[in-house]
Amino acid sequence: MPYDMDETTCDDDVADAFLHDGVVQEEEGEEEAELGRELVETDDSKEGNGKPAEHIVMVGCWLAMKEVSLLFGTIIRKVPLPSCASSIAEEEQMGLCTEILDLVQLETMGNHFLQVLLKVKHNGAIDKTRAGFTALCNRLLCSNDSRLCKMTESWMELLMERTISKEQTVDDLLRRSAGIPAAFIALFLAEPEGTPKKLLPRALQWLIDLAKKPLSNCAKLQSSILDTSNKNLSKTRDEGVIPTVHAFNVMRAAFNDANLATDTSGFSAEAMILSIRSFSSPYWEVRNAATLAYTALLRRMVGFLNVHKRESARRSLTGLEFFHRYPALHPFLSEELKIATDLLNQSSSTHHAEPDITKAIHPSLCPILILLSRLKPSPLSGGSDETLDPFSLLPFIQRCATQSNFKIRVLASRALTGLVSNEKLHEVITNISTYLAENQMVLPFNTIHGLLLQLYSLLDSNCRSLTDLSKKDRIASDIIRVLSTCSWLGNGMCHVVASSYLRVLNLLLDISQRSSIASEVTATVQALLFEVTSQHLDREISKELGIMHDPTLIELREQATVSYFSCLSDERCDFTNEEVQLRSFGLTNTNLAEMPQVEIHPTQLQERILSCVTDDTYEVRVASMKQLLRMVNHFRPGDGKGVFYRWAINGLQLILMGRLYAEENPKCVYYILKIIFSWSLQFKDPFVADSLVFPFWNRLVQLNSKVLRSKTKEIIICCMSICMKHFVKLLNSSILSGASVDVNFGMAIEAINLFVNLVKGYSDPSQLVNMRRAASESIIASSLLEEATLRNGNKSENRSVVKLVLDLWFISIQLLEDEDVGLRLRLAKYVQKIIAGRLNNDLSCDDSMPTQVDKVIELSFEFLSSQFGNWLEYLNCLAQRILDTSNYSNSRGDLVRQIFDKEIDNHHEEKLLICQICCANLEKLVVSYNSKEIQLFSENWRRQFLQHLVLFVGGYADSGRNVDWIGGIGNHKDVFIAVYAYLLGIYALSPKDLTGQLNCINKVYPSELSELSIIEPFLGNPLIFNLYSLLVRDQQESSFLDGFDPYFLLR
Description:
Elements: H1 12-21, H2 30-45, H3 53-78, H4 85-94, H5 103-119, H6 123-141, H7 146-163, H8 174-177, H9 179-190, H10 199-212, H11 218-227, H12 241-256, H13 261-264, H14 268-277, H15 284-302, E1 305-306, E2 311-312, H16 319-325, H17 329-349, H18 357-360, H19 365-373, H20 394-400, H21 406-415, H22 422-438, H23 445-463, H24 469-483, H25 495-514, H26 518-534, H27 539-547, H28 551-568, H29 577-584, H30 602-613, H31 618-633, H32 643-662, H33 666-682, H34 693-706, H35 710-737, H36 743-762, H37 769-782, H38 799-815, H39 821-835, H40 853-868, H41 872-890, H42 911-928, H43 932-959, H44 973-988, H45 1006-1009, H46 1022-1032
Antiparallel strand pairs: 1-2
Helix pairs in contact: 1-2, 3-6, 5-6, 5-7, 5-9, 6-9, 7-9, 9-12, 10-12, 12-15, 14-15, 17-20, 19-21, 21-23, 22-23, 22-24, 23-25, 24-25, 25-26, 25-28, 26-28, 28-31, 30-32, 31-33, 32-33, 33-35, 34-35, 35-36, 35-37, 36-37, 36-38, 39-40, 40-42, 41-42, 41-43, 41-44, 42-44, 43-44, 44-46
């Protein structure tokens, strides 16, 4: 254990000399010089794993620091600590003193931890050092000796002194203050649970006070900072800036730690106020650190944000609950919002002055709006007590929601939702909509846009969550009555306003279709949407965009496309769980099948959809494809009366096929293929004629060779599975008619071969999980596995197809061992359905109940053996699987893992289980079909297994690799699998008598067995020893091997 930890420094020149020239200072000693020469030699020739020496030295250094810290932590947890003075005297008198570490050693150990944390910048070493320091401090704080407890207090004082030390530069802030937050967190976590905390409250209050100090001088320093902005940048900062950043970084780490959530909750409000105020700091470093601390506090106080639903998924609070839990925040937010809104009003009143966004927007406005937007609406209002009522902040937020800054309007409209309770929702929405209707001709577009944003946010968040359906109906009726008088807003005089107007109407349509007033409101909204959207989807507007690019007009046309397709939907299928329960109990009287719809002629619908999917703007085409995909996925039985359904039956496939050959945008191509595949799942035969299959296949092959996006490749392989059904149908008809030499026959064989090869590549364990899922889905959709029930390998014209089907079965078996649970279960259910009823009565598989995946794998081999057991090619496939198991383990190289070795791709895969299943089936088939051809096959593969086994075993003896392993090298996982698989393959193909007993194998091939004398180092494993002894023992011998089962995983 080191008692002195001298600071070691090594600049770049010294490091280069050490690594390349071998120059070492004489006073470092002969041993260090020898080490340097060895490193230089290894650097010239690279290391065995191909990494340069400096890379390995660097990795070894931080690994050494990490392991030393973990070792210290383990030692401190196990060894006895010094007791109090009286206890020591008593133990010395009794001769029972068990003290191993004295006070000086413990203090040295703690100083070492602090030195590492305060100097090292590597996150991995810092994290493990923090763990060791936590163990040390926890052990000391749990001691009954006051001297040990005071050590932690002294270390905290050292930390505080280091945090506020003078002459710090920006370099001290690297890696977010590096180990300073980790050192504080170690002390916080070390305090025993169930006892009053001392270190954490003291440190957090000190950190908050430290961060407050520079704020009083911000106004004075801001002018001087701006005056010197053009001077050369320097790493020095004014006194107090760097300690303030350290304080924020420590608070960020403390509030991020879930283990400290309860203890730090009392400081959350004060820290939040401090973080928001620090957004006004003139120093970038302070603002950045305050932003990180603000983010940690936001997650800790109101939970993580669900990006799709725009709400906090966990620990979400209503506005009323939030301010009652953190009462100090309400007056602070009210005061800050008043200042910020006054500043916004001043900037908007001076139109003649040049706009200055730094003066118009208060620095604390955006974080306040973000905080309020994360709150949920309260079911009840605050009552008469307005001191903590969130509704009192509503005037400030509404004033921000109508300002000239677009982002401020968006944030303010989102912040509005948590301030309005369900009791006051109808009143607030009515006031906003009435004010809009009465002043629509005089209000500026910024104000109109802000009012529409407020309506959308209140409808989307507050109105959707209402459980009172009658109140929701009244709100929808009142708003649509008012908005129908403002239809000119959607005419496009202001594109941003028109887009928001369409978004509000679209949301009202969704709410009305879910409620009990659909027959009254839905028709009005649909008619209004059709009227407004039609004028934005004309070809003339699309041509204008080719001349002048206007992002707001593109956004408007994109929203118009979404709204148009929303009107075509017969049913809105994305109901919430509450609405599904209400409908199941009949609490709503909406008959979705009888919803009123605007009459539209199929020809007009065809033209409009064709115009959207062929639009010149990419955004309109993508929006059209997304809406078509949503509607196709939501098709249900009984939807045949809908206008879109009647058109889609005959027109959708033709439009998509035409666009697939003309579309160049990768994202549009992806959605086209997605729609085609979803349509094929709804309707079994998406092709009108077989002549369309080959052009579609050729286009898929072309796209697969060009695209780089993985999601597009996934849907391409799924669409290829659609063609497989038609190719198999073509092959069957050609075989029955005797036209197996037809050109289409050969093209179909090549297509199936390419499909199987692609699926094999995508199902590799090294591929991403989504790619493997796509391979599984394509296997299910292709129905090629079902061809195994209709074919065998006896007919020559079938063998090429059967071989491909057989390969696909083995790929499916590999996927049944995939790490993804959902992939395994879905594929296992499909395979189980195929196997059901095809095996013998004693092996039948009932598909009414899901079977365990391992059992499905075993049944799959039994099914294949029953179908192709009399085909020699199937026996070769089984033997090759056994050989692949051994070769996989043999390819791992050295038994000892190196630093940069690749991890196993699939930890769920059981190679030995598949090997034993293959050997068991191979043994049954060889015994049942005992012919000269089978005997020649068995002898050939026996010799191959034996040769590979001799080469594998001899490789370790000849290469001189390290074969020292606990219990013998045969107990290593990879070696055991390889050796046992070779021996089991020899055993399965060894001659058996009529009773299935193994003949004396020594008399069959004594020369080959004599080569296995070098296997003795591997016989330390009992399973290898038993199987080897079972092969070489004399037939008359009787030993304990009679109870050994080579297929122990199957019994």
